[in-house]
Automatic annotation (TrEMBL):
Organism: Flavobacterium pectinovorum
Pfam families reported in the protein's UniProt record: DUF1842
Lineage: Bacteria, Pseudomonadati, Bacteroidota, Flavobacteriia, Flavobacteriales
DUF1842 domain location: 7-118
Name assigned to this protein: DUF1842 domain-containing protein
Length: 137
């Protein structure tokens, strides 16, 4: 049996309008296994608002594929679930879905979007973490 993790690497970055006040930002840290077309890891959604949507941690898994053409050489999809609290004055929580999709170049820069409880963010920048940029250079 061949090495199932051949070519695996760590990808870190953000999805969203970083620097825009109040904009939700999804920060990702993913183990990518191109030979298996899989990604898995953690996404942290932050937003400068009070309440349950200000800091959400989601375990995710998904797929990565080469496009074979154009500026964006790869497409990625992610899915996960997290515990979402009801907004006050209600009590309780439920499992909410998180989904993300993006088209990126080989340096993990591009465009995409993500959705989570009552939020849909589309056509926002995807940017690699600065330390990853240095590793890929």
């Amino acid at each position: 049996m061949e090495n199932l993790l051949e070519g695996a690497y760590l990808a870190e970055g953000t999805i969203g309008n970083v620097g825009m006040p109040g904009a939700p930002i999804a920060t990702f840290s993913l183990v990518v296994v191109p030979s298996q077309h899989t990604v898995s890891g953690t996404v942290v959604i932050t937003q400068a608002v009070n309440g349950p949507d200000s800091h959400i941690v989601v375990s995710v898994k998904g797929k990565i594929y080469a496009t074979g053409f154009g500026q964006f050489t790869q497409v990625v999809s992610l899915h996960g679930q997290y515990v979402q609290s009801f907004p006050p004055p209600a009590l309780g929580a439920f499992l909410a879905d998180f989904d993300a999709h993006f088209a990126i170049d080989n340096a993990w820069n591009g465009t995409g979007g993500f959705s989570y409880f009552n939020h849909q963010i589309e056509n926002v920048p995807v940017a690699t973490a600065k330390k990853l940029q240095e590793q890929l250079a």
